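notes to self, project folder thing:

trying the whole complex as one job this time. last attempt i did each chain seperately and stitching them together was a nightmare. two parts in total, labels are on each line so i dont mix them up again. if this works i'll redo the older ones the same way
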Amino acid sequence: MRSFLGLMITKGNVAAIMAGVFLIGFIGLLVGVNYLSQVKLQKSTLDHLKKDTEKRSMALGYFCSERKNDIKELASIRAISAFFENKALGMSMEYGLRASLLNISEIFDRFSSDRKLLGDRIYTRIVFIDSSGKLFVDSKLERAKQEHEWDWKSFLMPESSEVASVVICNGRFLSLIVSVPYFFKTEYAGQIMAWISPQAVYHLVEEAKGAWKQSVIIVSGEGLLPLPADMQYFAYLPSLLDLIGTKTGKIDQFEVINEYGAKVDILAIQMPVKDTSLSLVTFLPASEVFGPMAPWHLFLAMGALAIIILTGMAITLRINTHKLILHIRLEEASKREQEIEEKNRQLGREIAIRKEAEKALRNAHDELEIRVDARTKELAESNVRLKQEIKERKQAEEEKEKLQAQLIQAQKMDAIGILAGGVAHDFNNILQTIRGHNDLAMMKVDETDPLYRDLKQIELSAGRAANLTRQLLLFSRRQPIKFTPINLNTTVDNLLKMLHRLIGEDITINTELDPELWTVRADAGTLE
Amino acid sequence: MKHGKRVLPCIRNLVCMIAMVAITSVGSAYGGADLNEIKERGILRHLGVPYANFVTGSGDGLDVELVQLFAKHLDVKYKYIKTNWKNVIPDLAGKNVKPKGEDIEILGIVPIKGDIIANGLTILPWRKKIIDYSTPTFATQVWLIARADSPIKPIKPSGNTIKDIAAVKALLWGHSVLGVANTCLDPSLYGLKGRGARVRLFDGNLNELAPAIINRDAETTILDVPDALVAIEKWPGKIKVIGPVSDMQEMGCGFRKASSLLRDAFNRFFKECKKDGTYLSLVKKYYPNVFKYYHEFFK
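result (full assembly):
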């Protein structure tokens, strides 16, 4: 047991524990220092962001004041006063005065095309409206042609003598207009207004891009100066506009939903633009400033790391203990293994014997199977033969029965023949007697006597009856067939005479006899 | 007696016309040059009178550039021949003429100095008797201009030019009008004298008419639209446009009657210039307001 504990508390284990504790301490120190520097860096970044926004706001303020100077300059051009001077002289638009307006329009066009910032035109439209709100001069870019019509009277500012930067909210989108009242000989004569291109404004405030992916928008109240086509429009911009507070110069953090439906933390700072109602808002993803991980996350990570290291050490100690126990058990296991090996060998031998027996048994079984198959085949063949014999015997039986029936029929016919022959023989004898007596009677009667014809008829009928009996005797093989030359037409005529008497007057028998018919050799009785 | 008065002008006109035809044919033979001769000579002579922005007198102007381009088109050299309103027609036609209403009286033969007149030359009936015009190059009208402090007040347009002209002329009774004889600004062309105006003829250049009335040489003057628009722009508040004294007019380049080939060549060249935008860009350069004023004409 002592040796067992001694093994457990080794120098290696102690060193490992010490190293682990030192490592945790060192990482903790690093994380602390890093946390402090991160907090400092974030503060500095936010200050920088604020200053950057202030700088842009100042630039925009300066830009707006420059535009006021522009409009003042426009108001001082000679062409406008010349127009009013000519108008005051009573000149009509048709004869001369319209030229003055065209002149002003020309100057507005030139002014608009000359004023550029970073290659963009600053003004998209310059108009001059008279004191009644009638549009006199309208100089606008092609792209601004589709702009909706304004209520010009609402722009008139006869009371103001100062240049005013006016912001007009059209729904949620702003139009940035710089406007100046025009006085001719101290009397309010109209208003000059110039639309400032949002593109030029955004390019001005976007010019100094920092290292971050910040975006800048210009707002007034809830209205937004429309973003130019080359700027990215964030899907969450409308919700951001709703979230932006009234506090200026303070960095706010919002949670918005981006175009992919994910929640994004946004930092935003709003800065007012001097002498205008505009505000400049800079916003950027919080991850740009804070990084993907917040400082407190490092502490969390440190704790997790310490737990991992301690767990690792505990696992190592546990593994070492298990290793020792395993070593002891290993020796015991070795002995047991030898015994098992011996038993295994014996078992192997038994298995071999059993395998041999199994093999022999399998062979015998196979042989038996072969024999059974052969016998089964023989039996099947003999079965087929037996079936054939039974079939043949059945056919012979049927044949025999058929022959017996035929024999019985033949015997019956033979009996009938014998009977008919007997009857015919006796009848023939009687006929011979009748014929003899008839012949005698005929010899006694004159041929002219009417009785003679009757006797003659008896002779003929007796002759036919003799023929009939001869046929019966023929049928019964008692009368030989007597072939004599016969005229078939005569035979038919003779027969018809007898038939006419037999069938009566109601039935007529028609014959078609060939007179050229040759004589044939035949038995007359058989023919009749 | 009345009948005799009617017959006499007719006979006089007939004699003038016969004389004109006779002298025209002589004149043509005398010094006229058509296209082939100009090409042989290698020089196109441009007769010009400094007038508004057509011929500024400083070597440029709408018509100067147009004729320079035409010379280049003909592959000949351009030469500017300075003249004045009195001699510009004789210098081209080779005849000294005097307008008489819509007719002319030929006074004699003079040397031919140029081949083409181009300086905002208004197409007038009497001029067409002695020279040929190109296709119209410019639209115009003659307006009555008054000094700012004149009691004559600008008319209110009626929408009908004839009525407007009558309204303007009705205002002229007893007022002085400054004009230039033998030009399109000759008051006699518009019958101003007959309306009781005190007509004064000016010896100076047409460009000097507006300054002249500002200097109180007369109370009013007549100017054609291109010149009037330049004057309004130059002296705003010092002059005022009262209204029209003529119907719409057209300007064109003048050619000798015998230079029909040259005139045809110019017409073809001018058509191309209009088609490719060259001419419109020249008009925009020298008369941006007129271009917009008579936009339909320049379309």
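what i see at first glance: The radius of gyration of chain A is 72 Å.
need to look closer tmrw
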